[in-house]
Amino acid sequence: MKFRSATLDNGLEIVAECNDLAHSLGVGFFVRTGARDETDEVAGVSHFLEHMVFKGTPRRTAEDVNRDFDEIGAHYNAFTSEENTVYYASVLPEYQEPSIDLLADILRPSLRDDDFNMEKKVILEEIQMYADQPPFGMDDHIKALHFGRHPMARSVLGTCETIGALSVDQMRTYFESRYCPSNVFVAAAGKVDFDQLVKQVEARCGHWEPRAATRELPKPASKPAFESVVRESSTQQYILQLADGPASEDADRYAAKLLATILGDDSGSRLYWELVDPGIAETASLGHYEYQGLGMLYTWLSCAPDDAAENFAKLREVYANAEQDGFTDEELRQARSKVKARVVLGSERPRNRLFNVGGNWMQRREYRSVTNDLATLDGVALDDLHAELKKYPLTRATTVSIGPLQELEPLA
Amino acid sequence: MPASSHSSTSPSQVQRRTVETHQLANGLVLLAEPVATAESAAFTLMVPCGSSNDPASRLGLSNMLCDMVMRGAGDRDSRALINDLEVLGVERGESVGISQTSFSGATLADNLLDALAIYADIVLRPQLPAEQLDAAKMVCLQEIHGVEDEPSQKLMDELRRRTYLEPWGRTSHGDESGVEASTAADIKTQWSAHYRPNGAILGVAGKIDWDQLVELVESQFGAWEPVESAKPLEAQREKLSPHIDFEGNQCHIGISFPSVPYSDPKYLQAWAAVGVLSGGMSSRLFTEVREKRGLCYSVSASLQTQRARASVMCYAGTTSERAQETLDVTYGELIRLREGVLQSELQRLKARIKSGLIMQQESTSARSGSIARDWYHLARVRTLDELGRQVDELSAHSINAYLDEHPPNNFTFATLGPQALKIPV
């Protein structure tokens, strides 16, 4: 494994983890833009734009784009989050150049009116689809409750109203301001020919005009709240909790991962033994999500409505006990071996390494090898976990309950 | 600096790898694909106990048994069992299918043998603690209730139910009455009858020492006693109407039609035809339903195979106002498939399949599952390079000959949403 990086004259960066033993490579264009960079008027534009990027360029129609990707056997897709939009493909080494040619070309989309109007329908369907699935849009709602008007509380999808009212000109303006070389980088992992990669990107993106793209980074000020949302047609009751956690630039984010594993991993965690193993909850889990300047500790609980109040009390007790009594060495050892095995298992596929390399570059402009990550995990001590819970108490959280219950009594 | 990196301009080839096989005297088949460059090892243990083996009044029993065997085995109680697997770093999963229960796991290569020894306890010596029966029941009921809030999954369950004769259209989670009626004795009986080595398969892939592996498996699984088992009986089930009422923004549409199973000599042709329909974004369903008409976000088709039967299952989800058009356009594409596929479509498909095969080499988990599945269906394992050659030999002509013989026909429909749709006939 070898890390390489280069910067084009217009500021576009290229980073790669080269592994000669790999059979394939993953390559992605990472754009530092997402819901947090939007305004009310264009809510949901980042995600809609991600769809439009596949709709053709001056050189290719939408059909050409899909066909050309399929012709090289690429496994490709894109996603949009609150703070980034990523276009990626996994290909065999002989298709490195055609995959770069395609990705670079579609990153300069035509944004044609007809395509825009057609794709708007697909986006509206996607919004309706998620509205019918747990947690029925409440993942957006809880962010807004907890973080108020902070940009990170914006919805990635937007609403039927904002998407319905969006014009193609608004999208073009947004595109111009966000997809500039300083705000985009190329990452690759696996069997990469790096010298060729730099030439291939230079030939296609070297002429992209430099421009400054900025992001507002207000300090988050969270305020715990509680809300019950009635949804009579639900079978199960869903309880979401959001608490503050370390941000992507914070060194203690590794402690947060281990803490979340001990308390709320899918299996073998405290929530698992308390709620899932006895069968009183369908799922109960805790995860840590990191963003620029802000982190979240996110709890998800689903169960029969009749058991919700009792389960919620148990959940709070698990968190209160952890804050009061801390964890054991044995718990830390178990969580660490689990997380380390995941790091190693995940690293065997170039596609996984691509997201790791790209994610680290996106968040911190740094490269971290598998060995680095394992060593850092080894360095986390029990006291670090205890300090973490002091700094980010799970009992200081916003709660939203969704389901048939009129009210979820927050038992004392 | 010399530009010495191996610039790969020649086409990638699937690596030549061998698959070792060893059958124990009790019938258990051990398969392994050694991968010297991997740091991990993965396994898939298939036991011949699936929902088709559930008694009709105990639907969901195999699923509940699968939960129960993880609640303590050998000397370990429930907590010690899970904890020890986690300390070994085993990323694990259990799933119950129509004819099999699969226990799969992946971990660092050094921990493989210790992990397998624990799995021998799980299948041979589960404690099946009676005091945990209620908990297991509740876990299974939660699963049944959870599906009620997942409309697309519920629809596909309903489509499968309407497609097959009993017991082949069952869901693994069964129904509430079956789970509630199940007793500790039922669990024990199901385990004794169906957790057996004859018909069980253990597939392993990764950094392994074959001789050591054989020795460990012989010592841990060798005492497993074979059991003769009766085949499930087939039966017609009562006719169900295609529509299921469901309150929501979207309508979910399912269409199935018969295909050929994995072991059929024409399977690859059947699979390729479905690939033209729904593999990659230039495929027909994605192009016609989503790209050209913007009818939905999600539309797909896949060939789902059991050992002796198979069907193509299609799904589309869309808002109610556009549901009829979505159904009609999707159905139209299934009918159009009868006219055959184009050479250009096949070319793209082959490229996708080939890169998929090569990328599969990079995952020990995927390989352990693949070789176990191959054995289940074929009683032998195709190496990836053999599969690669078969894909190279695929021609549009052979696919079209298959489609002439087996044109999409005898459709089954299911819809789930606020209102019924007009079913094309």
Automatic annotation (TrEMBL), chain A:
Domain Peptidase M16 C-terminal per the UniProt entry, residue ranges = 166-338
Peptidase M16 N-terminal domain spans which residues? 17-159
Name the Gene Ontology biological process terms.
proteolysis
Q: Please give the Gene Ontology molecular function terms for this protein.
A: metal ion binding; metalloendopeptidase activity
Its required cofactor(s), as named, are: Zn(2+)
Pfam families given in the database record: Peptidase_M16, Peptidase_M16_C
- Family in the record: Belongs to the peptidase M16 family.
Q: Kindly provide the name given to this protein in its UniProt entry.
A: Insulinase (Peptidase family M16)
UniProtKB/TrEMBL annotation, chain B:
Any GO molecular function: metal ion binding
Any idea where the Peptidase M16 C-terminal domain is?
Answer: 183-352
Where is the Peptidase M16 N-terminal domain positioned along the sequence? 36-165
Enumerate the transmembrane spans. none
* UniProt cross-references to Gene3D superfamilies, sorted A to Z: Metalloenzyme, LuxS/M16 peptidase-like (3.30.830.10)
What is the name of the protein in this document? Peptidase M16 inactive domain protein
What organism is the protein native to? Lacipirellula limnantheis
Lineage of the species this protein comes from? Bacteria, Pseudomonadati, Planctomycetota, Planctomycetia, Pirellulales
